[in-house]
Design goal:
7 helices, 19% strand, globular
Amino acid sequence: MQVDFAAKELTVKLVYYGPALSGKTTNLRAIHWLGTASSRGDLMTLETQNDRTLFFDMLPISMDSKSGLKIRLKLFTVPGQVMHDATRRLVLQAADGVAFIADSQRSEADANRESFLNLKKNLEDNGIDPERMPIIIQFNKRDLDDIRTDEELASIAQQSREPIYKAVATRGYGVMQTLLGLIRETWGRLEQDHGLEEKFGINPVRLMAELEGQLRHQSRGQER
């Protein structure tokens, strides 16, 4: 989290992590497509010729809170390929929250597991306690064949501390719920650590209502 007192801006960094081709960039594209023009910035992507993320994607989202403080969200993705581990670790630096994008296909279970363990290792290498980092999990690609069932995901959720969301990012389904869930978890941690309501007069409940109103304004029809 960064605070610019002169400009009255608070910036929160959110990172989308996960194995290669799980849908991290697709989530950001859907958020950019579904979000309101007044709140979203330009989506910046750096890809290879086969449409895989080479370095990272970044999408800025801004909103003015009723307290007078501008909230800026910076959404990043990391490359999923193993060869870019140093880049993943770099992008994770100073992250305030993480959305882990898992592939729902059974064939990708090992890749999901390895990537999640890699996330925890890179957090530790950056001096961040994984147990204190707000993390949510999205199981993407729910429209494909041979995927983990809803019952299996419910069982995983019971055993995990991380909230679980379901999505079909290519259709825009579930991406805003995932983002709002990530913001909610992240803001709760920031409030606990920094007392934002006392310092800036930002009520967490009112803030989430304002954010949801802005972010979901154009997405209701897509996520039904």
